[in-house]
Amino acid sequence: MSKIEEVLSHYMEGHHESLIPILQDIQMTEGYLSEETIVRIGSFLRMSTTKIYGLATFYDRFRFYPCGRVHLRICHGTTCFINGSSAVVAAVREALGIEPGQTTRDGRFSYELTACMGGCNEGPMVMVDGEYRTHVRAEDIPEMITKLKAVADLK
Ligand code: FES
Q1: 120 within ligand 1 shell (Cβ under 6 A)
Q2: Which one of 52, 91, 138, 151 counts the least CB within 10 Å of its CB?
Q3: What are the 10-residue block averages of pLDDT along the chain, 155 residues in total?
Q4: Does ligand 1 lie within 6 Å of residue 74's CB atom?
Q5: Which CATH class is domain 70-154?
Q6: Where are the domains of the chain?
């Protein structure tokens, strides 16, 4: 049984209210929601894929692409925002040429924006593959990305 079918086996067919829990479970298992997965969920719940995408994209926690080999999480909480996280996000967007939630074509990088990471005094905070970077400034990003390319290439 595939991982998707394993998740679906815990739910009743046709119950629309199971949509969000199913999406959460599959994202937890697979790391993202592929087009094939959305189609399969649509047939399981008897819902249109357009409606599923509409609901899933409303919540910014769902990903529709697999993560890159290096994944950045940029804190966009209030304190980090006040301390310049928007400039950090803009610098990452510029360096990678992708939007939050997307993955670079070469599969090296992906990034997402997150709520407060609990280190407000040390923000803006960026988590790189689970490791915190503190007091990150927009001007740090080009060098950080250059170094991380080498990390991505080793994975
Ligand atoms: S707002 Fe960024 S760590 Fe709290």
Answers
A1: yes
A2: 151
A3: 92 95 92 93 97 88 88 95 97 96 93 93 93 96 96 90
A4: no
A5: alpha beta
A6: 3-58, 70-154
